[in-house]
UniProtKB/TrEMBL annotation:
Matching Gene3D superfamilies: 3.30.230.10, GHMP kinase, C-terminal domain
Organism: Gossypium barbadense
Superkingdom assignment: Eukaryota
Pfam families: GHMP_kinases_N (PF00288)
All residue ranges annotated as the GHMP kinase N-terminal domain in the record: 146-201
Record keyword ATP-binding present: yes
Protein name: GHMP kinase N-terminal domain-containing protein
């Protein structure tokens, strides 16, 4: 099924048009899909190998330049309005009070309502921290696919909207770095580059296979796209999307950063044991043979982290050899932090 539908695009344009007092033809819409990670979860922050692709569900951000320095954003799911100015000096999230984050009504907003606009501020922080001068804000509205929430505005969508409004031309690889700045520096989340890289460097209908240490990547196409027409046809595949009803913001969960720290501590132990203590402590810098030779020196929890890293990297390599989605199992859904791609070239899709 095509996504977004024309009805969805018309509706978001109408809302932004009313907010800004401009015509619907002036409204741009950035599409930020959710993604699946068939193999390679929780190894990107250690420079591991991952696989990922987007699906036809996600978040839409409709916007127009505000004509001033003000940014004003509303959500289709949460009350209140996020407001700030692009000429403000933004610091990391820890210095922002919730009272500044959202102008809600007198009713008590839920914790989620404080969070939905944080990526927009983070996008401004990332652009400013890398020397970009912004003079133009945006008026925007976000909404998620029916049945799924829009509690987190995509960092790449926010970046693209601000870049477009200010006439900035930014490459996909540059936006990957900006996304990393938002999450690592601004939000304090020590995650990797899987989400933004997998989508900014991929194509619709293809599985992206990527080395997160070197950023080398390639696209794996479904069997029907293969040039060898004599190849034995394979059965089609379907992706089952199941929403558990549980919500957990990684930025509010210390367990994620603890997991990253444990992976790095395991890497440090293994590197020291092999006489390479000067090497940066990431598991991607530990050779598999070094791990096998010294893994007995790891404490139980560190051993568990290291085992996941090396076994998951092996699973990704084996999955890539099959070169077919129907043989890859263990699909898991996470929100995309990047832009939908609808052909084989590098471009950010607008409507």
């Amino acid at each position: 099924m095509s996504w977004p539908t024309q009805d969805e695009l018309h509706e978001i344009r109408k809302i932004v048009s009313e907010m800004a007092g401009k015509g619907t033809e002036d409204v741009r819409v950035v599409v930020s899909p959710y993604r699946i990670c068939p193999l390679g979860a929780h190894v990107d922050h250690q420079g591991g190998i991952i696989s990922a692709m987007t699906i036809n569900k996600g978040i839409l951000l409709g916007f127009v330049p505000s004509g001033s320095t003000e940014v004003a954003l509303r959500s289709g799911q949460f009350k209140g309005e996020v407001r700030f100015r692009v000429n403000e000096n933004h610091k990391s999230r820890q210095t922002i009070s919730k009272g500044e984050e959202i102008n809600a009504d007198k009713s008590s907003p839920s914790p989620d309502e404080f969070e939905w606009g944080i990526y927009a501020r983070g996008a401004l922080y990332a652009l400013q921290s890398r020397g970009n001068h912004l003079a133009q804000g945006i008026i925007g509205y976000i909404c998620g696919s029916e049945g799924l929430d829009s509690s987190g505005l995509s960092s790449s969508a926010a970046l693209t909207a601000l870049e477009t409004a200010n006439g900035l031309t930014v490459s996909p690889t540059e936006n990957i770095e900006y996304d990393r700045v938002i999450e690592n520096e601004y939000l304090g989340l020590r995650n990797g580059i899987l989400d933004q890289s997998a989508i900014l460097l991929s194509s619709h209908g293809c599985l992206t296979y990527m080395n997160c240490k070197t950023t080398e990547h390639k696209l794996i196409r479904p069997p029907k796209f293969l040039e060898d027409q004599e190849a034995e046809p394979q059965k089609g595949y379907k992706i089952l999307l199941a929403f558990s009803g549980l919500r957990q913001a990684l930025t509010n969960n210390p367990g994620y950063n603890s997991r990253v720290a444990e992976c790095q501590e395991a890497a440090k132990v293994l590197l020291n044991a092999s006489g390479n203590k000067e090497v940066e402590p990431f598991l991607c810098n530990v050779k598999p043979e070094v791990y096998e030779a010294h893994k007995f020196k790891l404490e139980p929890n560190l051993a568990k982290r290291a085992e996941h890293y090396f076994s998951e990297n092996m699973r990704v390599r084996k999955g890539e050899l099959y070169n077919g989605y129907s043989r890859i199992r263990g699909l898991g859904l996470r929100r995309s932090e990047s832009l939908w791609r609808a052909n084989d070239s590098f471009w950010s899709k607008f409507y």
